[in-house]
Write the C-alpha cells for this entry.
Amino acid sequence: EKELVNIIRSLSTVHVFKRRKSYDASLVNMSRREMKQLKVIALGVSTGGPEVLTKIIKGLRINFTVPIVIVIHITEGMLMSLISFLQNLTNIEMVIAKDDEHLEANKVYFAPDHKHTLITRQGESVVVSLDDSPPVGYFKPAINKLFQSLADNYPKESVSGILTGMGDDGT
C-alpha cells in the first residue's frame, strides 16, 4: 500500500510531452581519442524506457570497450526477467552490480533492487559502490545518485544518458 502511494505521488509530478527523434549527438560525434578516454557509460531508465533500452542493447557489438551501468525503475523482482530478456539480444554479458565490483569492458551492469549504485575510483579501476541510504524522491535505486557519482569521480571520462525519467530522477 505504501509503495503504491509513493508511485502515485511520483507519477503525479510527471509532465507528459512528445518528442520527435531528438537526441544529443555528443557520443556519436566524439573523436576516437575522446572515446578511448571513456571509462564508463551510465543510463537512467524509467517508464517507457525499456523499449529504447532494448534497441540500444540490440545495437551493442561484442568487444564494446566501455562498461555500461544502468539504473532502471522497475517493479521489485522483475529485474532478472528483464536481464534474461535483454541477454538474448546480445553476446555482451548482463549482470546485477555487486558492491566493490571492478567494472569490465564488454559488460552491462544493472543497479540491484533497493540499492543506490554509485561509481567510484580505485586507482585505475572503475568500481561499483552499493549505497543503502534512503530513497531519493521515492526512488531506490535513484538515477540522480548514479549520475552524481560520475560527475564527482569521472567528470571528463564518462557519458550519461537519460532514456526516460520519473519525477525529478535523472535531472
